## 1
Amino acid sequence: MKIMSGYGMMGGFGGVFSILSFIFWAVVIYLIFVAIKKLNSTKDKKAKIEDDNLQIIKERYARGEINEEQYKKLKEDLGRKGEKQREARKKWIIGFWVLLTLLLISAVYILYNFNHRFQSQNRVVPLPIPKLLKDTNPDPKIANFSVTAQQGTKDFIVGKKSATYGYNGDYLGPVIRVHRGEKVNITVHNDLGEPTTVHWHGLEIPGSEDGGPHNEIAPGEKWHPHFTINQPAATLWYHPHLLQKTGEQVYRGLAGLFYVEDKKSDQLDIPKEYGKNDIPLIIQDRRFNKNGQMDYNPGMQDLMNGFTGDKILVNGAIQPQLKVTRGLMRLRVLNGSNGKTYNLHLSDSQYFYQIASDGGFLEHPVKLRKLRLAPGERAEILVNFSEYNKGHSVRLNNNQHSFMSFYVDGKAKKKYSIPAQLTTIKKISVSSAIKTRRFAFQGMGPMVNINGKQMDMNRIDEKIKLNTTEIWEITNTSSTMMGGNVAHTFHAHGVQFQVLSRNGENPPENERGWKDTILINPGETVKVITKFQYKGIFMYHCHILEHEDAGMMGQFQVQ
């Protein structure tokens, strides 16, 4: 099913609005003309009557019917009556013009506001594309970047500014792109006026560089993490991880994407022109008050289920539109929300192909109509727009709610096909695991916990030997009466894992690659396996950020 484009709809409504405006002003001008003509006609009639009466008095005086004294009195009475009538008519005319002026001012005000609301609600908002952060080191083997966490303001709603946070800008941050084997040096400035951290979500690096709550950056201070990229091509991201403040700081805008490329991603014949056919989509939901301010004040329901909003943003814009060519497009999708899980699909139920999960490419593309993404999860998908005619629009939906559109405009310069093979993933042998650890996600609201314990910075919950393999078994007990029947999202720092099973069954095809974040439904048990290759202290936690801030987090140390 093809859908009318946003441009066509706006043009149609705009044309109707213009015609109505023309008719309105034509009617107003006509009524003014009629009123003036009527006033002049009435004035002429009254003047004629006055002249006729005066003539009658003169004739009566000439015939001797009235004497001179009576003649003068009748003439004076007629003059006074005419003066009163002229004074009354003058007041009436002034009142008429005052009323007409007020009506015109009111009409202009109403039309202006209607037009303003119409334009605000129906304007085409181009999808913002985050900038690529410049590498300031000319050495191809070394990358230097500078990131500043700062305050800002942004008009999410036309004419209404909201206070925000951002990296190197007012909201969200630039895309950091690196290559496997590069040595990366990043200088992080904190200009927020409050402490923060920057966690490199999905990167396999030492705990000292991970950006968890131990790496707090004081206001006005700098942090200098450095690490070598040694993992496959993937779409990762970065965001704050300050103890008990992660939810608020991410909500206000601190988040950005982190791309890793390698020889495989360079060689694959898939779209890779950033901002043209390789597009980042950071999906978030937000609440705005009547003044257009982002509202973050979690109540009990938010603590129970995670903070959710009634507006869905993509790259910081409400209802944006992306112009696409008639060809294959690569979309890198991040669920950057605090607590909402998305069920994404195209408005015409077209198939698309998932080619990557959190930690990199899947072995084979997975054909889907719907994609579920929990907070913190990523997916790369290929969408084929070649079957659409120029001018058609397809919407991206979450369940039944549309929140952005793709406008087909022009033919792709290069033709791509869906690769049959993307990469080869070496499966971690279950027999190589030296230990199975079990984690029970429990409680509700402010009482959420893991294995009965809430986060304590001074406690190491799990100690792990370097270069060993383990199986982690995560169970969501929230299907019980006291659990609240809430889904949880499990994330582990510093590792990428492979999913072994969901409730004893094989995982879906699109969860058979590398993962660092996974949704655990109420009553469900998920088993994952990973090898711990970096020393340090790392976090494991629920990635529903209100749960994390409430204490649903623990620490493991690799040594």
## 2
Amino acid sequence: MTVSAPTPAARLPADRLPPASELAGRAARYAALEWLSRPVWVFDIDGHCVHWANTPALAVWGATTLAELCGRDMGHDMSESVARRLAQYQSDFVLRADASFNEQWTIYPGGVPVSLNVRFSGHRLPDGRMSMLCEAEPVGVVPPESLRSVEALLHTAVMITLYDANGEALYRNPAARAAVLSPGERLQERIGNAAAFAALSRSLEQQGVGTLTLAVRTPQGDRWHELSARRCNDAITGQDAVLVSEADISAIKRTEERANFQSLHDVLTGLPNRAHFTQRFARAMEEARAQSLEAALLLIDLDHFKDVNDTLGHAAGDELLVALAQRLRHARHGTEVLARWGGDEFLVLLTSPRMREDLDALHERISVALAAPLSVAGTPLRVTSSIGVALYPQDGETIEILLRNADLAMYAAKQRGRNTLAYFDGHMAETVRSRTELEKELRQALEREEFEVYFQPRVDVATNRIRAVEALVRWCAGTTRAWAWCRPRISSRPARPAASSGGSGCGCWPRPRASRWRGRRRALTWWCRSTCRPASSPRPACCTTSPACCARPG
């Protein structure tokens, strides 16, 4: 470790300089150490100064007198790593009175590097504070590579520890020493988990190396470390040893956990998202089958949520979603899985041995929670929801089928007036299937030009004058002419709703044809007058707005 010598100006404040009488007392207290030929000094860790030094130590530090050396401010340009290391020494000495450490230090008295092998041990000062007794031996000429490697080992943030075959620590660099709870911590205690330690031991035995990623207890709290170990020999005794290096990857772990959380949770509400819900669904179904439980999937859709976005803005809509998500959290019990499916839709997965009772209770809690008044963007609101329920396994055994059926039930709840709960039944799927098939047929009929436009007059019965015409479309499938509103051969499948809302294009198709009739109004008027009786006569059916009057002109 490097300790820079202070400049001559780096002196302790006058009130901290020891008086001559104090220095004389120290000299008398440590007189026996003056007989030693090796440099020995006592370092005041708290004060960052030398408390006492023998004559060889004065020579090593380049000091002429004890007063001059004790007056130096060693903390003036001390690096943070050295300060942490000294504080760690002090803590170790307090915990274990017999603790000692051997390290290679480099000091710079007068700017000249001096390398020393130093043995550190704890020493109590007369006032009770723990200081450090330093016994040094000059290293002599040190190759630059060796000196730099020692410096790197002492200052690196990587924790390096050499253990003997029994797991006892033979050496720890400063980073490793700062990361253990006690100086005597063994490798088994460091790993903590017996199974992980056994796996590492097998890897070392079979391959000579091993790695682990584990949570370890440190003075700074629980941290995540990546541990690498390899078999080697102790350079002093030649006995088998294990060299272990540890890197703190807590920041990486936190980033991974945050990314994992964000991938499985909705960013806005913090609820589980689709991916998370799908995973939880699979586990919940396994538990339900194992415990013979019933399960239900609830799809919750907020009523008139679009009105909030349209009138108050999307920021207000987001605020409302966050508030309602929090209410849904509180409305559920411990067994339900809650997720945001998207937009204003939420999912709840319920498993229970008495499904109907628990569903009724859950519906009541959800309704009460959502209906409680709240203020969004300064506007008081009351929210209701439409809920569709699909039961497992009778309504489906996969999340895709259950979700589709719950969605159908939710729309049934909307059609019943909202703010209610509807269970899925098979008729819902059949209705959707028929409508979908009819929409497909209508689109194909449009492509094949199977539609014809007919115009029906709307007559003012008081004046017997035409006020407007109504364009009707007939679907000519093959040789059969059928109303576009209803195909007679499939009486249970009305075509009018499908043509109006199914996206088939039938509603827009007659417009260009109707425009061509605008210039022929006179002819159309004459035809209607010639086919309809005078106002004084009984009015035929063709003069009403009923679709019965649909004869083509000419």
